[in-house]
Amino acid sequence: MNIKKEILLRVRFAFVIILLVSTGIIYSIFDLQFNQSERWEKKSENINFKYDIIQASRGNILSDDGSILATSLPFYKVAFDPSIPDDEMFDFGIDSLSYNLSLFFKDRSMNQYKKLIIEARDSGRRYLLLNRNKIGYQAKKKLSSWPIFREGRLKGGVLFEKIDQRYRPFSKLGYRTIGSVDENNRGTVGIEYSFNSYLEGNNGEVLKQKIAGNYWKPIYDGTERQPKNGKDIVTTLNVNLQDISESALLKGLVNNDADNGCVILMEVATGEIKAIANFSKNKSGYYTENYNHAIQGMHEPGSTFKLASMLAYLEDSDVSIKDSIDTGDGEYKFYSEIMKDHKPGGYGKITIKEVFEKSSNIGIAKLIDEQFGLDPDKYLNYIKKFGLNKSFDFQLYGTSLPSIKESSDSAWSKVSLPWIAHGYEFMLTPLHTLSLYNAVANGGVYIEPRIVREVREANKVIKRFDDINSFKIAKKSSINTVKELLRGVVENGTADNIKNSYYQISGKTGTAKKVSNGKYINRYYTSFAGFFPSDNPKYSCIVVIDNPKKYRIYGSDVAAPVFREISDKIFISDKSYFSDIKKEKLIASFPLIRSGYKKDLVSLTNTLGISNHSETENDWVRTKVIDNSIFWEGINSKSFLIPNVVGMNLKDAVFILESRGLKVNYRGRGRVKKQNVSPGSLTKNYKIINISLG
C-alpha cells in the first residue's frame, strides 16, 4: 500500500511540473506574440535591411591648362532581379539575353547563363549578380539595349551598380605629387590626400535588403539620399614641363647609377610649381616614385646654401665682391676642426667673387666667421629672414620644415657657424633651397611656393589660393650682386660646363658628403639650383641626385647637366624666348636636320624661321636640303617593309621600328648612323634589328 502511495505521489509531482512548464511556454508564446512582437519585428528589419553608402564621385585633379591629371571613371557591376519581368517578356527575351551575356563576358555558355537565370527566377531570388567583372559606361549602354534589360530596372529588373575607379590619363606622370587613393576612395598621399576634404564629396545612402545567397539588394523606396560629388582641384602643374623634368631626371639617375633624385621647376613671378619629379631605385634596380624627396627629403644642402651665406654677408657689410680674401693652401683650421677646399693646394688669395664662383668652402666660412663670429644670432636671423624658418608653409601635407641650429642649442659649438656657412650641420629640403633661389630671381621678393590654384565646382570657383605670403628678403643692391655671382658660376666657375651661347643660366652647384653612423663618408648628395634666362628669369629650378656611384661625384658633373637639359628643352619649346634672339644668331650655320617625326620637325624649323616644304603626307620624313630650304621626303610607311631610320634620334628610331614588331639593339650615342638590315627588306624575315649611333 505504501508503495502505491509513493508511486502516485511521484506521478502527481511530475504532472504538476509538466503543467507548470506548459503554462510557462503558453505564457511565453502569448507574451512574444502580443507584448514583444514590435520589438522582434524591428530586430528582424535590422537583420534583413540596412542602409548602405552610395559612393560620391571623387573630384578631378587638373593641370594648369585644365588637362585632367586624375579623375574618377564610372564602372558598373551587372545584377538582375529575375522575378520582375513578366512571363511574356521573359520567355521572349531569355534566349537572346543569355546569348549576349555569354558573348560579352565569355565566362559561361549561353545555356549555362539561361539555366542560371531560370533557376534563380523559379526559386524566387530577387538578386542575381551576373558577373563579378566591372564594365565601363559604353559597355553599360550596350547592355542596356539587350532584350529584357532594355526595359530598365522597374520592368526589366536589370541593376547596374555604380563603382568609381580612379584613372590617371598620363599614367605615372607626377605620380607621387598627384597622389593616390585607397580602397575606400580616400586620398593617401600627395594632392589626393592633402585636398581630400574637397575631392571626396558627400556620400549618399540607399536602403538594402538581405536576400538569398547572402546578397544585399538595393530597395529604391524614395528614402535614398543622393550623393554630392567632390570638387575639382586646379593645380599649377604643367604636363609638358612635368614630362621634360621627369625624362631629364631619369636619364641623369641612370647615367650616374644614383640612389634617388628629384627636380622642382617653379615659375619665378608667381611661385607656382610647374613640375615636381621624384625617383628612387628599387630592389630590382628600376626607378619608381615611392617618396617625395622634393618636399620631404631632408639633407645637408652643401654649397647651394652658400647663396644664403653670401646674401647675409652682403646685407651686413659694405664690402665689394672685388675685394680679396686669402683662402690659403686648401686647408684651414677653424677652432678645433680643419676645413678643406676641393682643389688640392687651395685657391690662395682670390676675390670674393671668385670665392663664390669657385665654391671655396674656406673663403665663405672665413667671411661669415669674421662678420658674425661674435654674434651668430645675427647671421641666423638673416637666414630666417630669407624664408628658411619654422613658419615655412606648403600646400601638401607632410612637407618637412627647415632644421637649422640655434646658438642656444646644446649641440652648438664655435665651429657650427663656419660649417653652417658652407652648407653643413643643418637640414633642408630641395623645396626650401629653391624658394630662396626663386626669391633672388624675383628681384628679392620671396613668394610662398604653391601647387594648387583653386577649387572648383563645375565652372564655379569655390576657393582661390591667391592669398600668398610674400615679402622682401634683401636690399636691391645685395640681390643684384648675388645675381651677378650666380651668373658667374656658370660663365666662369664650377658650372661652366653648362653655359651656352643662346641664353644664360644662373645658379650654384652643391656637393655635400653624406653621414653614416655619425661620420662623413665618401658618398655624395649632389645638386644644382638656379634660374633662367639670367637677364629676365622665367623659371627657377633645382636638381638633386643622391649618391651617384660612377666616376662623377660633383654637382657640376652630375646635377648641373640635368638642369641644362631641362632648361634647353623649355627654351626651345617656349617661342616667347626666341623673340629676344636675333634670327641670324640662331642660323649662323645651317642646322643639321636629318629625319624624324614630321610634325615635330616642321614645328622646329618654323620656329627657327627656316623655309621648309613638303609633298608627302607621311608622318615620318627624311630631309633634303636645297639652298637654304628643307624639303621633306616620306619614309616608307608600309608596315611590312623595313624603314630607313638613319639620321633619326634614338627615340624616334626605336618607336618606328618597334611599331613594326622588331626588337631593337643599339650601341653608341647621338643619331642613327647605321642599321644592319637594308631599308625595304620584308619585316616578316627579321625579329631583331641592330642600329649604331654616332
**End-to-end separation:** 128 Å
Rg, nearest Å: 36 Å
Shape: extended
Strand fraction equals 25-35%
User: Mean of residue pLDDT?
Assistant: 86
CATH topology of the largest domain: Beta-lactamase
Structural class computed from helices and strand pairing: alpha+beta
Quaternary structure: single chain
Q: Regions with pLDDT < 50 over 5+ consecutive residues?
A: 582-589
**Proportion in helices:** 25-40%
CATH architecture of the largest domain: 3-Layer(aba) Sandwich
Task: Explain briefly what this protein structure is.
The chain is of the alpha+beta class. The protein folds into three domains: 52-232, Penicillin-binding protein 2a (Domain 2); 242-573, DD-peptidase/beta-lactamase superfamily (Beta-lactamase), CATH 3.40.710.10; 587-693, no CATH class.
Give an account of the 3D structure.
It is built from 23 helices and 31 strands. The longest helix is centred in the N-terminal third of the chain and has 34 residues, at 2-35. It folds into three domains: 52-232, Alpha-Beta Complex (Penicillin-binding protein 2a (Domain 2)), CATH 3.90.1310.10; 242-573, DD-peptidase/beta-lactamase superfamily (Beta-lactamase, 3-Layer(aba) Sandwich), CATH 3.40.710; 587-693, no CATH class. α10 runs antiparallel to α20 (560-573) and α12 packs parallel to α14 (361-372). By secondary structure, it is an alpha+beta fold. The radius of gyration is 36 Å and the shape is extended. Strands 2, 3, 4, 5, 10, 19 and 20 form a seven-stranded mixed beta sheet that branches. The chain has a six-stranded antiparallel beta sheet with strand order 13-12-11-24-23-22, with helices on both faces. The protein has a four-stranded mixed beta sheet with strand order 25-27-28-26, covered by helices on one side. The model is unreliable at 582-589 (pLDDT under 50). Helix content is 34%, strand content 26%.
